[in-house]
Here is the input.
Amino acid sequence: MKVTDWLTNEELRALTARSNGKGAALVLFNWSLIAITFAAAHWWTNPVTTVAAIVVLGGRQLRLAILMHEAGHNTLFKSSKLNALVGQGEAVRGVCPTGRVVAGRTHTCPG
Here is the structure.
């Protein structure tokens, strides 16, 4: 089974098109959800919100790692400079505390 069995070439191009706006929206959405989750856990501290925050934050951390991966392959943004800036900076900080990845290795965060 191929993806072209389900989608036309035009639909596939539209689905895989790079966009600076969509990339920025994905990064902003994830960081906004992280901030809201921390605020909710702080203001309404109880076992339910703590467990919910752990689940949500774990999912957002995974999503930031995925965005970092996509930026490393220059597929998150149309602009290579934005891919480098976000992939090595903002998106990475939620996954890699040092805020950088090993040069030439987009899948590795130094400890």
In short: The helical segments are 9-16, 20-43, 47-72, 80-90. The radius of gyration is 17 Å.
